[in-house]
Design brief:
CATH class of the largest domain: Alpha Beta
Largest sheet: 6 strands, mixed
Helix content: 40-55%
CATH topology of the largest domain: Cytochrome Bc1 Complex, Chain A, domain 1
Structural class: alpha+beta
Low-confidence stretches: 1-23
Number of strands: 12
């Protein structure tokens, strides 16, 4: 489930290393300008004149939740294919033009959105905007490129299943969310990918790409009025007719009781496991408190989980926990891996740490460390034009604003250990748990039945993740 855009946000908002600064003044963002064109396109502009660069982040509300049933992976294919040819440029010409000006352009697909992120020199602003306009509005989706990319994705998926640690979150999403849109793999699976054809890609673009579903954030060395005119010239005529707009996923239902899915990987010498339930949405009012508690429990290196499973017991090289947050509630899960012979010992210890969190809460010193950590890391993520453009686009997508920065330190300082107990009781599951294990079923299958029965077993080479 990892993507460049999402993990950039995670690293910026709740960084993964270091301890950071203490109390300080409230943060401030550079002023920015927001415009909505007549066709519904949202523009976000922030001037940064320190270096002659231009950063562009485009977010389109056309993620994998919009995939038709049986054609999972279509959204991800569509955004990738934007760079594979337009009405006026071939894939080779697009790549050559980017190389000539020294520009970069990356695309990502997530559950609820796709994104394009580029950086260019100031003097190449016209080239950048012309190219971006053509990619979004006039892709040609050459049949040969569609077929080539689908085959590449199928081959990549086979390789991914050799890496149990990397593929574990996809199985966890499938087990936890089931037929909810969040349970479907954003990049598709072995069956859905081969069912996709060029006509599907064309129809998806026509239905979901339009000014009313798109956010363009630009930060860098430019005059806002001039950039607004340049963008309006290129995108003001983009017609929204015939598109369905963004899809709002329903709130997922938390799992009640216990469930265990064992994915058999016969050649695995280790067991990889994830344990959790439904968490919170990106805009949840308790998001800061949840993150502070998780920083103590498993959200960085110096945590309760890592101390117990790695430092004291030596059962693993890593253990952690995270909340993945979307427009609706995403998952919470703790994770780790260990040798087959230590599978139940490691899982038992992880569950004991979770129980300890509920019993003891967190201490004043632990909370103080988490506060300093979060306050120390966040300012480092507001320094470059690329960071600012990405942050503004993300806020606009979720309906947030600059109070995410200006009120952040105050919200952190106001959080107490008493608040933490409420957060733990409400958002860190204790009894209702979904277990997903990838490992050698012949070795560990009998032992793990104690966590949930019956065990749902599948083979790693079975198509899909559900």
């Amino acid at each position: 489930m990892k993507t460049r855009f999402r993990w950039w946000i995670v690293c910026c908002l709740f960084a993964l290393v270091g301890d950071g600064w203490g109390a300080g003044p409230a943060l401030q963002l550079p002023s920015h300008r927001k415009l909505t064109l007549a066709n519904g396109l949202t523009l976000l502009l922030v001037e940064q004149h320190q270096v002659p660069l231009l950063a562009i982040h485009v977010v389109v509300r056309a993620g994998s939740v919009s995939d038709p049933t049986g054609k999972e992976g279509l959204a991800a294919l569509t955004v990738e294919l934007l760079q594979r040819g337009t009405q006026h440029r071939t894939a080779e010409q697009i790549a050559s033009e980017l190389d000539f000006v020294g520009g970069t352009l990356a695309v990502e697909a997530e559950l609820e959105r796709v994104s394009l992120a580029g950086e260019f020199f100031k003097q190449d602003a016209d080239t950048a905007l012309d190219l971006l306009s053509e990619l979004l509005q006039k892709p040609s989706f050459p049949a040969t490129e569609v077929e080539k990319l689908i085959q590449q994705r199928v081959d990549t998926l086979k390789q991914d299943k050799e890496d149990a640690r990397a593929i574990l979150p996809r199985y966890f999403y499938g087990a936890l969310f089931g037929h909810h849109p969040y349970g479907r793999p954003p990049t598709g699976d072995e069956r859905s990918l081969v069912s996709i054809h060029r006509d599907d890609v064309v129809a998806f673009h026509q239905r979901h790409y339009g000014p009313e579903t798109t956010i363009i954030a630009v930060a860098g060395d430019f005059a806002a009025a001039e950039m607004a005119r340049a963008l309006t010239e290129r995108f003001g005529g983009w017609v929204p007719a015939g598109r369905t707009g963004a899809i709002q996923p329903p709130e997922p239902t938390p799992w009640v009781g216990k469930k265990l899915v064992l994915v058999n990987k016969p050649d695995s010498t280790q067991t990889y496991f994830a344990i959790g339930n439904v968490g919170i949405a990106r805009t949840h009012p308790d998001r800061i408190g949840v993150e502070l508690v998780n920083l103590v429990f498993g959200g960085r290196f110096t945590t309760m989980l890592n101390e117990a499973l790695r430092v004291r017991s030596g059962l693993t090289y890593g253990a952690g926990s995270r909340f993945e947050r979307h427009r609706a509630a995403g998952p919470f899960f703790l994770w780790s891996y260990t040798q087959n012979v230590n599978t139940t010992r490691a899982i038992d210890l992880a569950l004991a740490v979770l129980k300890q969190l509920h019993t003891d809460g967190i201490s004043d010193s632990q909370l103080r460390s988490a506060r300093n950590y979060l306050k120390g890391q966040f300012p480092l993520c507001l320094e470059t034009a690329d960071q600012l453009a990405a942050l503004l686009a993300e806020w606009e997508f979720y309906g947030l604003d600059q109070r995410e920065v200006t009120e952040l330190f105050a919200r952190i300082d106001a959080f107490t250990t008493a608040d933490a107990r409420r957060i733990i009781a409400r958002y860190f599951p204790a009894d209702d748990l979904v277990f997903v294990l990838i490992g050698n079923a012949a070795t560990i299958g009998a032992a793990v039945k104690k966590y949930a029965s019956p065990v749902e077993r599948r083979e790693i080479d079975q198509p899909g993740f559900q």
